[in-house]
Task: structure prediction
Amino acid sequence: MKNLAIFYFSSTGNSLYIAKKAKEKFDGKILYVPSYKDNGSEFENIIIVTPIYSFGMPLPILNLLSNFEKGKEIIVIQNYGGMIGGADRLFYEYAIKNGLKVKGIYTLKMPENFTLVMSPPPFYKNMILKSADRRIDKVLNAISSSNFKLPKKRKTKEQTYLKNMSNWHIIGQRFSVNEKCIKCKKCVNLCPVKNIELKDGKINFGDKCIACLGCFHRCPQKAIIYKNKDNKKRYINPFVNESDIGKDL
Ligand SMILES: Cc1cc2nc3c(=O)[nH]c(=O)nc-3n(C[C@H](O)[C@H](O)[C@H](O)COP(=O)(O)O)c2cc1C
Result:
């Protein structure tokens, strides 16, 4: 695809994995959304790869839509762990409200990374991973053959999305580090909203958390715990280089 940007947001690598597959197929640049400050006008073709969050989208993706140049045409690949809940339609409506043109929206299942409440059993995660390439190829082939698909008009869970989004900051306030923390500052550096700091030898979580859970999953010591309990599973997509998450490639 000519002059293509593949924008992605990812905290545990699923979206990055899909973005890399899209780059293999179509060429182009992979850009990490929180680092991108422009309006997309320099690109002729745009693909956005994003996880579904609370039947909607992560905050950096929501902001990207409002920062894009009006009239821009986009193709969207959403990935999710369990339930779409109309997130494709909601994305479509938000994109249109922001003056964008949507060529196609595709959804595909990847392993669940919202493991703070419940973790899927490992066999299930492995099963989803094993069949992921098939689903990704199907979507990429549909795009390459211009078999574009748009979500039908239907009820979305916008109110749930907006309510959950307004509570995401609470998740950060429930994080803390235990004695395994070696103060490597990995969490400080990877947080997309700079909500974590090392001050006076202590890791502090602020009130700007956007619930991506990147710090929780990617702490090399598994030292970040939720609600003072260390009983939740971590996840990182095993087919990406963890240190590539958050990079432009
Ligand atoms: C805050 C948050 C909310 C989520 N909400 C949903 C959801 O509504 N439906 C769903 O199926 N998966 C949901 N997920 C799971 C992710 O969409 C899924 O695991 C995705 O593949 C993660 O992509 P990533 O590895 O690129 O970050 C949520 C994850 C997080 C962190």
